[in-house]
Amino acid sequence: MLKSQIYSSRRKALRELMGNGIAFLPGNTEAPINYPANTYHFRQDSNFLYFFGLNQADLVGMIDLDKGIDILFGDEPSIDDIIWMGTQPSMKERASLVDVSDTRSLSQLSTYLSDAIRAGRKIHYVPPYRAETAHWISVLLGIKPMFLKSYASLELTKAIIQLREIKKEEEIEEIEKMIGVARLMHTTAMRMAKPGIIERQIFGRMEGIAFENANGTSFPTILSINGQTLHNHYYGNVLTEGRLIVSDAGCESEDGYCSDITRSTPVGGKFNSRQKEIYEIVLNANLKAIETAKPNIFYRDVHWEASRIIAAGLKELGLMKGDVDEACLLYTSDAADDLLCVDLGGRRIIKKKKNEQQTTKNHHIILIKH
What we know:
Elements (H helix, E strand, L loop, with lengths): L3 H14 L4 E5 L5 E4 L2 E2 L6 H7 L7 E5 L4 E5 L5 H7 L5 H6 L5 E3 L4 H10 L4 E2 L6 H11 L6 H4 L2 H11 L4 H24 L6 H15 L8 E3 L19 E6 L11 E6 L6 H20 L6 H18 L7 H6 L3 H4 L2 E6 L2 E8 L2 E4 L10
Parallel strand pairs: 1-7, 5-6
Antiparallel strand pairs: 1-4, 2-3, 4-5, 8-9, 9-10, 11-12, 12-13
């Protein structure tokens, strides 16, 4: 956990970026697997973590933009909590870890928000992504679930983005730690990628490293010899000589800072000639992206340089036809700003929006040999 003053300075920075009202930041609840007491690995809401830092369920943070106070809502440990989990910190003890002095029970939350609404105060919240959180906000604020996104605060959303998009030194340190753990996960997978091994054996080892050295994985691990299938979470294939295995995996810290790395490894440790040629293209694109990524450079420019190397390399190998620049344009952020892009068997079809009506228009179609 970071120093308590870091969280209070973040809340102060949010106040300076916003106007009036209350920033309402609900944390996550436990998510049951098949009955209430049997839950998935807990993941706290990222915005709550950023401003209030506590990795426990059933907490709510309030930042009063007008009065300059911060409130942590949550219940004291019950006797059942103590029986099942041992001695637990009090709300005051939890709050002190993030430099908050005002704590209140969850039973007071509804009254607090109702009083604020009656006083004509603006309640800022970001669009909820969990159904239970959406339902809770709906009940507390009297907004039908279907309208929650419409009433979400653009002001709060933009302020959070402005604060979180540039990482401070302590955040970079956390991210680098997680990259170190991810490196161990991936190098272990590379060493294990031998004929006769089942994918789940490697998957299990990678997951174990993430929980041993971090707070688990940052997303469901993708590990498969069928790398052409995106987000493949089946781990029952047997590795055979001549195949590639793709591993897309990372881990996260208690504070929610993550790593996310993808690597392709030849089963048995040696690429064949075609695999090596394509691997070198991707490697060169990666190195070009690293070289291009500098302050005041747009992401789209980094993407463009890497895309050109990949397109040109594939064309040289005879795996792709067409104009390199036209091909890359379809995959840049510029082309996607006001367009809906769909991949269909190696072709990218652009669906252009026009006056709220969508009309389909085929632009440059790039054929890939399979």
